[in-house]
Every structure is written in C-alpha cells, then in structure tokens.
C-alpha cells in the first residue's frame, strides 16, 4: 500500500551530498519519516517538528541517548520496544512514567 510518504534513512556511514540532503530535509520538515541508527541523536541533526520517536531494542540505548533524542522535539511521543524484558526495562515500567503493552501472538495471516 502506497501511503505517499517519502521516508529518509540516516546512518553513520551516510556521507557527502546525500547526508546533507537528509539533514536538510529533517530540518525543514520535508521528510515525514526518518529511519536510522544512533546517528539520529547526533548534535548536528535537527528536526523541524519531531512528533514520534520509536526505539527498537531499547536496551541498546542509554538513558542519556533517549533523553537527547526526546530533546530534539517539543515533547514527542516515545515508543520503546524490546523483545526481552531486561531488568532495566522492568524497573522503568515500575518506577517511571512508562506504560507496558505485551504482544503475545502474531497478527492473523494476511493482516498488514
């Protein structure tokens, strides 16, 4: 299904004119979606209107890294995911402002 979105990719190995174009599109808001690695929370990365941050395998990111990403927007929504309930994740649910959802099975075949 084509949603008419033009996502960008930002990773550490991206360089030169392509990197400059991605950084420009994030800063001016022409990129509706960006997918990337730790490169996303580098200081030179600016977002015009960061509304949602999705972090997969959240245990690979430290607290300071998640805070740095959230500070790039005006209170963006944050979804952190982990396939493994590590102790830090469980403590964040217990003592922090973090809700927990558990997915116990796959979606039905053909659902997208």
Distance from first to last alpha carbon: 9 Å
- Radius of gyration equals 16 Å
Main sheet: strands, sense, barrel: 2 strands, parallel
Global geometry: globular
CATH topology: Rossmann fold
* Percent in helix: 25-40%
Task: Indicate the low-confidence ranges by residue numbers.
Answer: none
CATH architecture descriptor: 3-Layer(aba) Sandwich
Question: Overview of this structure, please?
Answer:
The chain is of the alpha/beta class and 112 residues long. The chain has one domain (8-95): 3-Layer(aba) Sandwich (Rossmann fold), CATH 3.40.50.300. The chain contains 3 helices and 4 strands; from the N terminus they run βαββαβα. The protein has helices at residues 16-28, 63-70, 87-95; strands at residues 8-10, 34-36, 52-55, 77-80. The strands form 2 sheets. It has a two-stranded parallel sheet with strand order 1-2. Strand 1 (8-10), helix 1 and strand 2 form a beta-alpha-beta unit. The longest helix has 13 residues, at 16-28. The radius of gyration is 16 Å and the shape is globular. The model has no long low-confidence stretch (mean pLDDT 81).
Summarize the structure.
The chain is an alpha/beta fold and about 110 residues long. Helix content is about 25%, strand content about 10%.
Topology record:
Elements: E1 8-10, H1 16-28, E2 34-36, E3 52-55, H2 63-70, E4 77-80, H3 87-95
Parallel strand pairs: 1-2, 3-4
């Amino acid at each position: 299904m084509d949603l008419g979105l033009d996502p960008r990719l930002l990773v550490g190995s991206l360089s030169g004119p392509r990197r400059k174009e991605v950084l420009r599109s994030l800063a001016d808001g022409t990129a509706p979606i960006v997918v990337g690695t730790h490169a996303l929370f580098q200081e030179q990365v600016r977002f015009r209107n960061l509304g949602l941050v999705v972090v997969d395998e959240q245990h690979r990111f430290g607290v300071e890294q998640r805070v740095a990403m959230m500070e790039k927007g005006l209170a963006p929504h944050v979804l952190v995911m982990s396939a493994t309930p590590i102790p830090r994740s469980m403590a964040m649910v217990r003592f922090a402002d973090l809700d927990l959802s558990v997915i116990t099975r796959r979606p039905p075949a053909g659902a997208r």
